[in-house]
Amino acid sequence: SSTSGSCSAETEEQWSDFSSDSESYYDAVAFDVMDSNDSLAKYERQNSTLKNAVAELLEKEQNYIDGLMNGILYFIPLLERAILPEGLRGQRNNLLTNIEEIHKFHQDEFLPALQSCNENVDQIAECFIRFIDSDKFYCYVKYAMNRRKADTIFERHRQYFTQNQMVMQSFPLLPIQQLPRYKLFMEKFIKETLKLEDDINAASKTSSIHKAHEMISQLNDLVNAAVSICHIPECESEFVATTSFSQSYSGFNRENDQASVLILKPESNKQSSRNNPIDLFAQGKFTQVLETDIYDTAHYRWYKARFFVFEKLIIYTEIVKDTFPYRGHYFDSEINHWTDHKKLHLFCLQRGTQEIQMHYNKSIEATVTAIRQRVTPQFSPESEIVKLSKPIQAMIKPDFDMENSITAMVNSQIQFVKTFRENVDFYLEIDANFQVTHFRKFREVCLNMLQQHERVLSDLSSNAKNMSKICTMFLQYVKVDFPCIYGEYLKTVYAGKFIRNRITPNTVNFLTIDDFLYLCIDRLDDYTLFFTTMTENLSDIITKNVLFDKTLFQQVAIVQVQL
Questions:
Q1: In the CATH scheme, what is the code of domain 402-562?
Q2: Could you tell me which residues come within 8 angstroms of residue 446 by beta carbon, excluding any fewer than 6 positions away?
Q3: What is the pTM assigned to this prediction?
Q4: 36-227 adopts what CATH topology?
Q5: Which residue, 7, 292, 293, 449, has most beta carbons within 10 Å?
């Protein structure tokens, strides 16, 4: 009995311990289940937030497309009326730019691609990456480049669009506001995705979103840079001409629209041919802007510069507060560079010609190299009235041929003499009653200048296969003949003021008065280019240990220095 009682007490104690442990166990399990339920509920809430963000993106995208269409449908009928203000005729391309292209891209390509991602943010990010990589979003850059001109036209004709001022003010801004909106969505996707993942998986889950965000940011920066092109004062003058279009018709069809252009009008280049207008829309894609301090040999000073880089053109400007005054440009077929003691030098065709220098800049060097590699032989850098240096440039080839180079120089001299003679006859014709002494003296000097260059042509032609003799005769010109005739020319050229009112005929054989007065001065540059290039080519031959007469190299180099 006592034994039984003892066992019973022990069993009761053990059961009591077991019951206590069991209660603790089930309490822990219950708490784990509750935590799990809370975590699941939190995950579902966060996942729901992410899905809502995706749904909002798709909704905003559809609203954006609808907004573009509404604006297009509003403006096009206004521009197709039978009676239009003169300044709006033919301006559809300048007013709407490529906004119809933007609308078509989003409606037919981008929105369907986003919808096919099935609310998967990784796929949406990859969608952005794919379309930006393939330059589908470049339409925004084109839109930005033309934006200021469109704003100018809208502002001048505000009264014509008074029926709906809200549409006029908000519609042109829609594309400009869209890219920053995409950035905000990517930031939201990153934030919500990080809430769903642990630290280990977070990086891999958000990598594509981060990449998309970075690419959108870079694209937005490029768009802002494209807008700043219009802050080049030499582009501003083009806006004044946008309302000068006038033709005798009422209303217009698409074939009567002016092509959308963005004209840069260079100024102050030493070579007048480099002041020809340039259509920036014809220079390939606008790719980037770069900023650095440069030393400009043409202006003899350092300044902070901004480079506007196109596929076929580089413009360099000075940064002056909020504007970027033009300082120079290089076409893809003429830009070159060299490095020296941690400095980078850019120049046009030959060293010393329109040369700028800066501390070594890897980005700019890579950009110039890429542009040079894209050069196509059919590209013509500038359209000019008379391209005197073109035959000379034909000799600048990887495979140097001295005889061809001399032939190119002879052809160039023939063209120069012909052009100079025709313009002397045209501008300096004197009637019997014209008694201005200075003018008559200037005409006499010009005729002497013509005779001098005819002698140069004769000597070049008779020695076309003897570079040594060409060097001897040019040394005579440079030391004796040129200083005399060019000295007289510089003393009398001011007489050109008496012919400044002469109307230039619309004929390719006649230059403007300024081009005519500088024609023989520019010819010295052509001679210098010839001998500089010849020196460099001969130097390369000697460097390669090719058997060659070094005496000829020394003769050419001496003439180059004298010139």
A1: 1.20.900
A2: 424, 428, 489
A3: 0.59
A4: Dbl Homology Domain; Chain A (1.20.900)
A5: 449
